What does this fold into?
Amino acid sequence: MADYIYTMEIRLTPDQQRGVTLVQDIARNAEMNIYLTGGAVRDIISGFPIRDLDFTVQGNPLKLQKELERAGAVIASADDDLKTLSLVLPGNVRAEISAALTERYEKVGKPPIVSPATIIEDLRRRDFTVNAMALSLNPGSRGLLMDPFNGAADIEAKVIRILHNYAFVEDPSRLIRATRFAARFHWPLEERTQARYQSAKENNYIEHINDRAIGLEIEQLAYEDDPLHIVRMLEKEEWLKVLNPHWTTAKVDTAGLAHLLKTRQQMNELGYTPDPAPAVLYFLTSRLGDKDIADMRKLIPRKDLVEAWKDLEDNAKDLAKRLMGKEAATPSRTWKLLSEARPEMTLFLAVTARQQAVTQKIKNFFTKWRQVQQKIPLPEMTELHITPQWPQYPKVAKDVFTLLLDGKLRSRTEILKFLKPLAPPPPPPPPPPSKRGRAAKAALAAQAPAPKAKVEEKKKAKQDVPAPSAPLPTVKASAPEKNRKKPAAKMPPAIKRASKPKQKAKGKKRR
Ligand code: CTP
It folds into this structure.
């Protein structure tokens, strides 16, 4: 059992892990049983990327809303009828928390009558076996996998299987979902599922799909890793026109979409994680008319996604204008502007900018200017004690980078000339070696009564010199180098003497 928690923990990103802990703790405090369900469990077990977190609670998730917001979650939508919360957890983690429900379908195409249920009852109302598993997040059973339809075996067999013969009749959106999952995972429909799918298609059950399901399916396309492939499969199966009657692959800006996904990949490799969903929708619908786009936006449940999609062009124009203005007059200022811009905007602008200067600046930001960092002479900086442990390191490193970017420092010599006066003083000398073995004997002998003159001499040396372990006088970080060297040159004789017995002892040991 515990293996699933281990699998979960190694498969989730750190932000997703924090998200699971956060939601789990809030549900526990509210005394609600909570489970990780649906696609998240499927992706944890199958090894596919975990795109979002689906939770199911026994109780009303809307009651958790305030606590979740207090913990930094942003609520994207709250549906009181379906008892579902869509949210974004800190770190841009998409999540959904639904109540465990049973559904009773009375008529084809009509929404089911729902009522509170146990988690096992809830799993019975789901679409496919691979999506009908739950992982307990509750104390005492944390890690327990509930898999009443043997979804784990279907993941192993790589097939999409419905739970029962009425699956497509009850919820025709499952036809689109089956195509989407089959296309995404490259898993075929299991034989009986394929037969039911074909029969549902021939009987045109899809005409009973409801608006919310259409909106959800459009939304899901935005988060696909290869949306064009999915759109092509939906078109082939005649589902794309269900999402919008005028939607075809010809309406997609395929070049723009490919450029977007490639740029996103490059940004990921550099450690940026822009959410590409609004821009994906932009390119998927580029050649559709305004009315069609407006109709689609109305159906999408996640309003934050719709707003981001709507604002894309204006925000990109604004960023382009700033990149052409005084604010980006030098490479270092451009660097600052792009470092502070939302990665989503930089991503979209990188693909859509018309001005050559803007494209070039974004290109430099991701390539040439990053290579400038390699010119920073780290070994020499270490010798100068300019290391990350030094509190002023970030500022000094940033200043060097800025001057390099703007061409004000060109060579290694110039960089070192700039750095030397800024370097911190060298660290204090190490404490004297402990007096052990022969060295200790030698020390004892040294402590034996000595001629009076020598005792006097020793006393004087002790008074003149600080204890060997005490730090040497420090010099301000900004003081010129010649000042800093002085204390080292004045190394007190007592310190030099203290190091001698160590050398002797070493020499004797070797013999
Ligand atoms: N679900 C269902 N029938 C639907 C929609 C959803 O049974 N028509 C259930 C499935 O258990 C699904 C879960 O709700 O796994 C979450 O739905 P959704 O987020 O739409 O799908 P995911 O499986 O999470 O897929 P994705 O990877 O695309 O997010």
